[in-house]
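Session log. Operator J.P. requested a structure for one protein chain; no other inputs attached. Running the standard single-chain path with token output.
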Amino acid sequence: MQYDVKTPEEYIEALEDDWRREKLEHLRTLIKSKAPDFVEGIEYKMLNYSDDRGTIFYLNAQKNYVSLYTGDAKKIDPNGSLLKGIDVGKGCIRFKKSVAISDTRIDEFVDRAVELWKNGEDIGC
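Structure written below.
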């Protein structure tokens, strides 16, 4: 889904008050805690997290899942152990209603992505 908003606050206000908002807020808090020096903004009608090198994460509430866009997930988690049990595309991690974020290792994945990014590694698609 696309939200025609200009600020992260407007984005959050535009979300329906359901499981997607809850999951998105959980991921948003996680990203902010793991990468406090990244700036939260809006790009491509999604939340984005960036620094002077560019954007590392996008976060968006879709109809049937909440998506975290990271570039190439295999560059961050080559053996797939950090994303086990989560629906993963090449650059999109999808959190469906049935997935409890607290039961995943997404916090370790975000840590690893931030570490690689800060070390100048290419994690893009």
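Operator note: The first strand starts at residue 39 and ends at 43.
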